[in-house]
Amino acid sequence: MKVRWDLDSPSQPNEAPAKRRPGRPRLEAPSQEYIARRDEIIATAAEVFHQKGYDAGTLEDVAEALDLRRASIYYYVRSKAHLLFLIIDRALGLALDELDEYTKLPDPRERLETFIRHQVRTITGEPSMFTVFFDHRLRLEQEYEARIRDKERRYVRAYLKVVQDAVKAGVIGKVDPRYGAQAILGMTTWSYKWFDPTRDNADRLADSCVKLVLDNLGAPA
Amino acid sequence: MKVRWDLDSPSQPNEAPAKRRPGRPRLEAPSQEYIARRDEIIATAAEVFHQKGYDAGTLEDVAEALDLRRASIYYYVRSKAHLLFLIIDRALGLALDELDEYTKLPDPRERLETFIRHQVRTITGEPSMFTVFFDHRLRLEQEYEARIRDKERRYVRAYLKVVQDAVKAGVIGKVDPRYGAQAILGMTTWSYKWFDPTRDNADRLADSCVKLVLDNLGAPA
DNA sequence: CCTACCGATCGGTAGG
DNA sequence: CCTACCGATCGGTAGG
Fold first, then answer.
1. Would you say B79 and B99 are in contact if contact means Cβ atoms under 8 Å apart?
2. Does the N terminus or the C terminus of chain A have fewer Cβ atoms within 10 A?
3. In whole angstroms, how far apart are CA A150 and each of A93, B184, B203?
4. Best mutation site among B182, B194, B199, B213 for testing chain A: the one with the most A CBs within 10 Å?
């Protein structure tokens, strides 16, 4: 049986590059083609699972879409469960990607606005990835759970802080930060259920979300 | 084979009572026990599909939870697909239930607030039903689609109108009604993904949503 | 509402 | 990356 490389690593741009281990490496790094092909498989699987659902979408469907035999997928991926993990990890990576940068923005109002726009852009930009993430996240196997949960927390915490600061600065009402963060997250994220790129416009949706939360008129009752 | 009754009718309180057909009825109406038992099956199936997903959750699981044999479920339900329909139809029925009443509220601000509170209460009150509804709605068979889509449209339209009126009355910013409605719907509905009744409080969540959208402070930039 | 029982699908592996 | 092939699961039906 051929030796395969670190199948688990999601090869994300925001991932730290693999540390060079001491001594002579046993194997060369996975070839560029290998990585590219695996990314193709991940993306295609996301589309299949998006359309048919994780369980109903078969590896046969994925293989067919790639003009492969089903067994060949196992050269790149350990199992169907592993494939689900790779999709979810990638989705989280995308969402987390520019967030650190935005966290540094000094103005609370601008920061919240940027977070909202970022979320809308990210979700509507990768509907398949995020549909799989949100609708099949609970089908993740135990072994993968921990790795995901970590990044997930980082994400929610970032949102929590933005909302807290916005409340402090008085740019939004005095809401419970946790509920406020989830509400804003929901308002934008929900788009994965209804947004139709042939009809809807992400920037206008973002405008509406921002206006609803930040551009306010009536004084409190 | 025994004759069964109208398996499709969801026996919802807001459903019009079945019209009395002319002539002598062929069969008495389904017994109260029959209806009650079927509702039990629907509720249990919702819990199973909530925990394991629609495809991964088996009829065996449902039967076991009810202390039945799997085959017995078919006395109440045509198929697994039919069971999914019954759950989804029930969820929509619950959501639609009090909505007509609230539509009559004259004050735009109060009406929007009531809609928001109603949505939070409904979703958090039936997590299993609504998780199945939102996460497995696309696995509905063709034959059931139409019946669902209709009610669904009614729901979205009601929200559309509330938002339109709120914009006109100037109680929220001038947002695109469609995006505004989906944003508010998302803000509240999203709770089915994270709300934990042992830790969270539905009324406070509703407060936060209302405050975020309606109780505003800063003037538009 | 139950006891069998069938048919089909599908993830995964051997071995090249 | 492919050709077989196995094993298990599961929805559904017959017949009572």
1. no
2. N
3. 12, 29, 29
4. B182
Percent above pLDDT 70 for chain B: 85
Cβ–Cβ under 8 Å, residues A123 and B190: no
pLDDT of A132-160, one tens digit each?
999 999 999 999 999 999 999 999 999 99
Of the candidates B10, B2, B210, B174, the one whose C-alpha atom is nearest the C-alpha of residue B90 is B10
Q: What is the pLDDT of residue B217?
A: 54
Rounded CA separation A50/A83 (Å):
13
**Residues of A in Cβ contact (< 8 Å) with B55:** 53-56
At B8, the pLDDT band (50, 70, 90 cuts) reads low
Residue B62 CB partners (closer than 8 Å, separation 6+):
B41, B44, B45, B48, B73, B83
Are A187 and B191 a contacting pair at CB < 8 A?
Answer: no
Residue B50, H or E segment: helix B32-52
Shortest CA distance from B180: residue in chain A: A208
User: Which nucleotide is closest to the Cα of A55 by its C1'?
Assistant: C10
Locate B204 and state its tokens: 């406070």
B187 in Cβ contact with A184 (< 8 Å): yes
Put simply, the answer to whether A212 touches B135 (Cβ < 8 Å) is: no
Query: Is 80 exceeded by the pLDDT of residue B82?
Result: yes
Q: Mean of the per-residue pLDDT values for chain B?
A: 89
User: Which of the four pLDDT bands, split at 50, 70 and 90, describes residue B29?
Assistant: confident
